[in-house]
Amino acid sequence: MKQVYFSEPTISINTLSYLEDILNSKALEGAKYTRLASSALKNTIQCKEVLLTNSCTAALEMIALLLDLQPGDEVIMPSFTFVTTATAFVLRGAIPVFVDIFPKTLNINHKLIEAAITSKTKAIIAVHYAGVGCAMDEIITIAEKHNLFVIEDAAQGINAAYKGRPLGSIGHMAAMSFHPTKNLTAGLGGALLINDERFIDRAKIIWQKGTNREEFFKGRVDKYSWVDVGSSFMPSEFTAAMLYAQLENLEMISHRRMVIWNQYYEAFKGAALQNEVQIPYIPEQCEHNAHIFYLILKSVAKRDQLIKYLEQRNIQAWFHYFPLHLSDAGQRFAKFDKEKLLYTESIYQCLVRLPLHSSMENDEVGHVINEINGFLSKL
Fold it and tell me: The domain spanning residue 350 has which CATH number?
């Protein structure tokens, strides 16, 4: 059997023609495709404003600036997340405060948030793991009670929803990723999604390197100048064009991923019922996007055995996040009670992510299923 890759980006049919259009027009700086992709994403997410960025990390860093965080401010988040969920805020001198996850969804446990709030808390970061929405109603209720901001780390959330609302459209702001491993890719790339209009004007200044360039192009000032903090957060037109082509094919890509996800689910739900593995759980109020299909084994030894077993059969399967509170930097920069992060510590050691991308052929999916069932039958 040929190699089954863990992830493989879909190259949309119009991608090359859009890139050629940019080269022929010599419009290498943000304009046509930045506007087209931003508009398409705004319609998809149903948010107030979209600013494309060169990465999801950049979008999170913009959010940290927009929240005007000061050294010593605290931001509550799960430890089971990608490092930039924390580093974006650490760069501003803020302190990540880690709380545990729900064992079923692997999302932040909203029941633990209130106990982590102090007079220094400024925001709650809801990380939608695997494109499955956090308990947003409960999180927003807590935030409103304590006058906190709610930020969605929707890096994995494109085309997923919570109670009918697209992920990224619920909190004050959100960040989204278009990394090659995501459902849609722009090579790299990300987006800042804004739902609170108070942030829009300043976000555009920060996005434009701290200048009022937007006002200049609208004719509101006769020249643009430096007016605030900012950086080079904008993506290239090539990034925007690739993303726009992907957004045009969003439904096709999503449908194929869902077909594969459902095949995995049907194949392994028996093993889950027999308590041999844990498979993804989708709460009734959530519409997921088939971003990840994972198995949680009974031990780290079994997890490692499965990954090696699949590798020997030309199947790439990966583990996931090393908890941030266990990292050297997490112990230096963050605040947490290790004894209250039990699910984070136990689950990360046992989780295996299976190959899942829209280019997978049926025989590849069948190969993965057959090999895993063969492994599980020997447990």
Answer: 3.90.1150.10
Say if residue 89 is in the same domain as residue 109: yes
Provide the whole-model pTM: 0.96
CA–CA separation, 308 and 359 (whole Å): 23
Q: Which residue has the tokens 């001198």?
A: 93
Domain boundary pick from 198, 221, 248: 248
Within a domain: residue 8? no
- Report the chain (379 residues): mean pLDDT per 10 consecutive residues: 91 93 79 96 98 98 98 98 98 98 98 98 98 98 98 98 98 98 95 98 96 86 92 95 97 97 98 95 98 98 98 97 98 96 97 97 98 93
Q: How does DSSP assign 262-316, residue by residue?
A: HHHHHHHHHHHHTTS-B-----TTEE------EEE-SSHHHHHHHHHHHHTTTB-
Domain that holds residue 358: 250-377
- Whether 28 contacts 339, CB under 8 Å: no
The single residue listed with the structure tokens 């990360």 is 348
Whether residues 144 and 192 share a domain: the answer is: yes
| 5 occurs within a structural domain | no
